[in-house]
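Board work, copied verbatim: LysR family transcriptional regulator
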Amino acid sequence: MNLHALRVFHSIARLGSVTRAAEELHISQPAVTVQLRNLEKAHGLPLTRSQGRGIVLTEAGEWLAAQADRLFALEADISSSMEAVRTGRLGSLKLAATYLPANFLLPRMLARFRSAYPDVACTVMTSNAQIACERLLRYEADIAIIGSIRTFPPDVRCDLLLEDALSIVATPDHPLVGQSVPLSRLVRDTTFVLREPGSSTRDTLFALCRARGIAPPEATLQFSGPQETIRAAIAGLGVTLASSLEIQEHIAAGSLVRLDVSDAAAVNPIWCCTRTNDPLSPQAAAFMNCCYPIA
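↓ predict structure ↓
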C-alpha cells in the first residue's frame, strides 16, 4: 500500500474535506485529489462520495479510515518511544557493583534516578571487582561502581566517585573510648575482629601496621563478610576497621563509636567505571547526570 496516499486519505477522512486536507498537508488540492483517486484505483473501491459542498466516506472508506487511525497512532507511539529512548527516558540501565556501593550508595542514587526516569528498567548485579569489570567489558553492564581496588584494565575508564573513610570502631563501653591512642597500643592491648584473608579492609589494616613497623593483629577472631564482622564488634568481641558507609547507621544508633587512632587514617576509594572511548548509552548518561554529585 502507498503510505503517502493513505496519509492523504487519512487527513481527508478526519477533516471531511479535500480542501482542508490540502491545507493541513501543505500540498495543492489537485495533488490531494490525485492521491485519493490513486488509492481508490489500487483497491478497486470508491472511498468517498460527494455530499453538498463536502464529502462523506463510503463503507469501505470508513473501514479504511479506522485502520489508518490505528496505523498512524502506532506510528506516533513509535516516534514518541524512540525519542524517549534517545533521551534516556525509556529503555534499560544495567549496573555492576561491588558489595559496598551496591548496598550503601546505589539504593540512594537509584531512588533519585527513578524519581526522574520512572520508565527506565534498572538492574544491579553485585559481585567482586574482577567480575564487575568483566561484565562492563562484555557489555553486560553500562556502568560499574567498584570499591577498594586502585588498578584497572586499560579498557576501563575510572573516575573517583568518593573516598570512603575507614575507621576503627568499638562498643561505647570500650576502655579506650575518649582516649587518643596510637595504632601500636591498640594492636598490643586490644582484640581485633578481622575480615578474611583477601579482604581489602584486612589488607588496609595490615598495610597500616607494616608502614609503622607494627606486627599485625593476630587472627584470633575472623569473619567472612563485612556485616558479620561489624555484628561481632557490636557484640563486644573486639574492635574492627570498617567502612564509614557500613557503620554510619550503627554510629547513629549508638551501638558503635569511632576510636581516636590518629595514625590509622585510611580511605577506601570508590570508582565509577565505564568503557574507555565508548560513548555511554542514553540511559547511562541520564543516570550520570542525575546522580552526580552524590548527595
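The chain has a mean pLDDT of 92.
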